[in-house]
Specification:
single chain; 207 residues; alpha+beta; three-stranded antiparallel beta sheet
Length: 207
């Protein structure tokens, strides 16, 4: 595997004797895999009349999307006119979920939904455009465990109790929260597309 493949989101598993090499490849990731752009094009096409607007937004997002994975945390940035950046330390991360729809699976893509203990049901970060997420997830989980074990233990609290307190929420609750966040995001996108279609219809009728 070449350096360019690793830096664009293509990576193998972190299990076995090649774990150190896989960790280095995770650290080398800076950009999503080019397959994400193809997925964006296909997604834009199915929006119909809103295609130019959706494609322009997703094109700029893909061109400006960057990641950084290190021992302190994960950073994600994107945006041309208005740049956004999200940085999460491993001590803040509560749980990680893998999610993909049918089209993403066809492209071999998945998303990592990173949730924190902020109390919000919405994922704090969505890492997308990576072909193999197992190594990235293992890389993050290993550092999450290290951050929790390094956390100070209060008086009268055993290390086991502290570790249990820092554990992720029950899986069913976390999955329900991730599903609700996804549905809300889809609803917002549908509303935006419908409003754009109605606006274009009114503009056409006024001509």
């Amino acid at each position: 595997m070449t350096t360019s493949e690793a830096s664009s989101g293509s990576i193998g598993s972190a299990d076995g004797p090649f774990a150190d090499s896989a960790e280095e490849r995770v650290r080398a990731i800076r950009r999503p895999h080019p397959k994400l752009f193809r997925y964006y094009v296909l997604f834009s096409l199915i929006t119909g009349p809103a295609f130019p607007f959706v494609f322009a937004y997703l094109f700029l997002r893909y061109r400006t999307l960057y990641y950084r994975f290190d021992d302190e945390g994960v950073t994600m940035s994107w945006g041309a006119l208005f740049k956004r950046e999200i940085s999460l330390t491993y001590s803040r991360i509560q749980d990680i979920h893998v999610q993909s729809n049918a089209v993403e699976r066809w492209f071999g893509l998945s998303r990592l939904l990173v949730q924190t203990a902020s109390g919000s049901a919405k994922a704090e970060m969505k890492v997308e455009g990576l072909l193999e997420l197992s190594a990235v997830r293992n890389f993050m989980y290993a550092r999450m465990r290290g951050a929790r074990s390094a956390a100070p233990v209060g008086p009268g609290t055993t290390a086991a109790a502290a570790a249990a307190a820092g554990a992720a929420a029950p899986a069913a609750s976390a999955d329900a929260a991730a599903l609700a966040a996804t549905l809300r995001e889809i609803a917002r996108e549908v509303v935006a597309i419908r409003e754009e279609i109605e606006r274009r219809g009114l503009d056409g009728g006024n001509r």
